[in-house]
Amino acid sequence: RDIVSPGHVFPLEARDGGVLVRAGHTEAAVDVSRLAGLNPSGVICEIMNEDGTMARMPDLIKFAQFHGLKIGTIADLIAYRLKNDRIIERMVESALDSVHGGAFKMIVFTNLIAYAEHIALVKGDIGGTAGEDGPVLVRMHALNVLDDVFGDASSGKAGELRRAMEMIADEGRGVLVLIREPHRAALSERIKSRLAAEKGNGGQKPAPQTGAKTWAKSGQLRDYGVGAQILLDLGVKEMILLSNTQHTIIGLEGYGLSVVEQRPITGPKPGKDS
C-alpha cells in the first residue's frame, strides 16, 4: 500500500570525490555508506506529501520525527568531509614582486578532489605561535575573470583583488587566498546568469550585490572549505577578514579558525579615482 506502481527505478553513478565534487543526492548516499564502513552504494527516493507535492525540509523534519529517523543535509555532509578529509596539497613556492603591494611569497596548492590549483599570496610572518603577533589580515577571493581581469563595472566588485593586495601590503602582514573555479563552464554560466537577470529586469543591468550573506550554497561551502584548509596549512588561526559583504560563516570553529573582525576593502575603484 505504501509503494505506488508503476514506479521508476534508475541506476545512477556517483561522481568520484562525492559531494565535494557534485552536491547531489547520489553522491551523498554513496558518501554516507562509505563513511559508515559499508559498501559504497545506496538507494535514494523522493518523499512526497499527502497532497502529492514534493516534501521540503520542514516536511522532512516532521516525517523523520514521526518515524524516529535521523536526518541530515548535503550541506552537513560537505562540511563534515571538508573538516575531516584533507583535500589540498602544497605544490610549489616562489617569490612574487607585484605592482599591487610589492613583494609576496606565492604558494600554489592543488585541490586533490577537483584538481584545480589555488594560490596563496603571503606577506610577512603569518604563522608562529598562536596570538603572538595578533590576528592575520585575510582576504578569501574567488577568482572572477569579468571582475578581476576585465573590470566589469556592473558587479561593483571590479578592483577588489588589487585593493585587497594593497591593503595587506599596507598592513605589512597578511594573506590573500585566490580560489580558482574548477568548473569548465563557470564563465559562460556566469554570463548566462547575468543576461537572464538583465532580461528579468527589463533589460536593465542588475544592481551590484550588497548586504548580508550566508555561505549556504554548496559551491560556496566547498570553496570556503578549501580556503580554510589552505589557511590551516599556512598556520593561520585568528583572522581579520577583508570583505565588503557581511559573511555568516557557519562551522568555522570546527577548523580551529576564528574571525575576530571584518574590514571593508577600501581604496579607489577602477575608472573612478585611479
Give a quick precis of the structure:
The protein has 274 residues and is α/β, with parallel strands linked by helices. The chain is built from seven helices and nine strands, in the order αααββββααβαβαβββ.
One letter per element, helices H and strands E, the order comes to HHHEEEEHHEHEHEEE
CATH superfamily of the largest domain: GTP cyclohydrolase II
Physical arrangement of strands within the biggest beta sheet: 1-2-3-5-4-7-9
Helix/strand-derived class?
Answer: alpha/beta
Q: Could you report the average pLDDT, rounded to the nearest whole number?
A: 83
* Count of helix runs: 7
Calculate the terminal CA-CA distance, rounded to whole Å. 71 Å
The quaternary state of the protein chains shown equals single chain
Q: Write down the Rg.
A: 22 Å
CATH architecture of the largest domain: 3-Layer(aba) Sandwich
Uncertain segments are 209-216
Determine and state the CATH class of the largest domain: Alpha Beta
Strand content: 15-25%
Number of strands: 9
Largest sheet: 7 strands, mixed
Q: Which keywords apply here?
A:
274 residues, alpha/beta, Rossmann fold, 2 domains, two-stranded parallel ribbon, 7 helices, 30% helix, globular
Description:
With 274 residues, this protein is an alpha/beta fold. The chain has helices at residues 25-35, 57-67, 74-84, 145-148, 160-171, 186-200, 218-234, and strands at residues 88-98, 102-111, 117-123, 136-142, 174-179, 213-214, 238-242, 247-248, 258-263. It has 2 domains: 18-82, no CATH class; 87-263, GTP cyclohydrolase II (Rossmann fold, 3-Layer(aba) Sandwich). It has 7 helices and 9 strands; from the N terminus they run αααββββααβαβαβββ. β2 (102-111) and β3 (117-123) form a beta hairpin. α3 (74-84) runs parallel beside α7 (218-234). The model is unreliable at 209-216 (pLDDT under 50).
